[in-house]
Amino acid sequence: MLTARTKPLKVAAADRPGMSTSTSAAADLSEKQRRILAYLRREAGDRTYFKSRLIAEDLGLTAKEVGANMTAIREGDRDVDVEKWGYSSGTTWKVTV
Predict the structure, then answer these.
(1) Angle CA 53–94–44, to nearest 5
(2) Which helix (H) or strand (E) covers residue 74, if one does?
(3) Residue spans per domain, the chain
(4) What is the mean pLDDT of the chain?
């Protein structure tokens, strides 16, 4: 029984049967962040460098939204490595899968 002083125990996804860490890694992202991550996964096979404004155009977002949401993708434990690369004429991201 939970009281005002107790909180439910959080169980890591790796400890739950049937849950993979890739599923749990995406679960902590917002809808926009999941869209950006899926875009990077899909496109990183063909290219390495991405401009925020071009990602934004493809996803119907603003460059500012892309940049703001990229932090969560960069800092998470994911199969995509994102590095802030350049600032000339907008932010460029180096992405490796």
Answers:
(1) 85
(2) helix 63-75
(3) 31-96
(4) 78
Q: What is the pLDDT of residue 45?
A: 86
pLDDT band of 46, cuts 50, 70, 90: confident
In CATH, 31-96 is 1.10.287.180: no
The partner residues of 86 in beta bridges, in order of sequence, read 92
Is-contact 73 36, C-beta < 8 A? yes
Amino acid at site 95: V
The torsion angle over the Cα atoms of residues 33, 14, 11 and 34, rounded to 10 degrees, is 10
> CA-based angle 67:63:49, to the nearest 5?
70
